[in-house]
Structure formats: structure tokens, C-alpha cells
Amino acid sequence: MTTKMEQRSFSGMQLRAAAGFVLEGVAASYNTPSRDLGGFTEKIAPGAFTRSLREGKDVKCLFNHDANLILGRVKNGTLTLTDTPEGLAFRCQLDQRSQMHKDLHASVQRGDIDECSFAFIVRDGGQKWNGSLRTVTDVDLCDVSVVTYPAYPTGTSASARSAHYALNPQDWRAKHNAALARLAPVVAADNAALAEDRAHDKQFEAAMRDVRRWALED
Q1: CA 17 and chain centroid, separation
Q2: Angle at 56 between CA 50 and CA 57, to 5 degrees
Q3: Out of 14, 38, 71, 95, which residue is the most buried by the measure of CB atoms under 10 Å away?
Q4: What is the pTM (predicted TM-score) of this model?
Q5: Residues 71 and 60 in one domain
Q6: Phi, psi of 189, rounded to the nearest 5 degrees
């Protein structure tokens, strides 16, 4: 078996927040073609993680695959991994006492960060080639990560969940646009009133000039 560890990332599609100070997402989406990875593309086949998950390795959830930025781990129950028909899902319970966790949660909540990734080692016989397309079928999972830059264009999501926020970016933009639409008549009325006030001011200034001129003539 090769010991080379590889990393693959997926671009986030949505971001929500709900109770529990939790990050949830999809670290790997099945049958989703990657971008060009240096002369080849790749997709992850359903079942690629089945054996690794069954063996119960202590997988960690990291930020940008940095071992110094641990968000949770399987061993202590703060990281849960689930093999779904769509891909490898994860749920990571963050620590309210960690400022790094708070900062990351806020960044995910704002939508600044919405991408997921995983690091893996391909098992012997765990890949198939069809020209320049590699299909990964069996891996040792090393970590899942919330990341800044994705290798895959679509097919994953990350969620920041808290008790006081329950909007994904699309919802937020829709509500924001709706609020702007409601404000538009108010803004237009204010602008009209301001223009009217300015017209009155000009009339008043003209009248005062006439008064001063008349006073000087007298």
C-alpha cells in the first residue's frame, strides 16, 4: 500500500446555522469530477470510505488540514462521520472555550468559509484509471477539514450551527433584497422631501436677497 497522503477539497454550496455550536458538512461528494489536478481529474466512488470508517480510526477534523488547528476528533466523540449515498458527511462539535473555534464558527456563519476537504491515503487496488480520469474506490481516511480553497467545484456543504442564526447565504440575500425593496419607497420619499426642502431653501434665499435689496434702496 502506498503511504502518500493526498488532500482533496470541495467547494461549498450552502451555509446554515442552528443550535449547538456545531460545524456540519460534506467532506467528500461521490461521483463529482474534480478540477484538473495536474494532468488528471478525479472522482470519489461510493463506498471509498466504508472500510476505513468500519475500522474506526481516530480521524480528526481540522482547519485547512493544519494539525495545530484541531476542531474535533472521533476518539472523544466530538467528530461524527457518516457515509451517506451522496458522500462523506461530518458533524463536529466545537468548543465554546476556544477563541479559534469561535472565530472559525463566525467565519463559516458569515459565509467567508464554506468549503470542505479530506486527507487520505489510497489503498493498494483502491483506484481505477480511465484515461486521465482516476476513480478512487478505497482509502484510509486521515482527516476531514474546513478549508479556504477547494479542489472540487461543486458537491459539498459546510454548516455553522448556533442557537440564534438560521439563514443560509441564499436566504440571507433574499431577505436582504426584500428589506431593500421595502426601504426603496421610503428612500425615494426622503429624497423627494430633501429635494423639496432644498427648493424651498433656494426660494427663501432669493426672497431674503430681495428684502435686503429693497432695504438698501429705501
Answers
A1: 11
A2: 105
A3: 71
A4: 0.65
A5: yes
A6: -65, -40
Cell for 134?
482516476
| Domain total of the chain | 2
Nearest in space to 112 (alpha carbons), one of 146, 68, 70: 146
pLDDT single digits (tens) 165-184 = 223 344 434 544 454 455 45
138 and 216 together in one domain: no
Higher per-residue confidence, 74 vs 171: 74
- Which residue's C-alpha cell is 470508517? 53
Quick one: how far is CA 167 from the chain centroid? 12
My answer on whether 14 and 94 are in the same domain is yes
Average pLDDT over residues 111-123: 86
Phi/psi at 72 (5° precision): 180, 170
How many whole angstroms separate alpha carbon 27 and alpha carbon 75? 18
Distance of CA 15 to the CA centre of its chain: 5
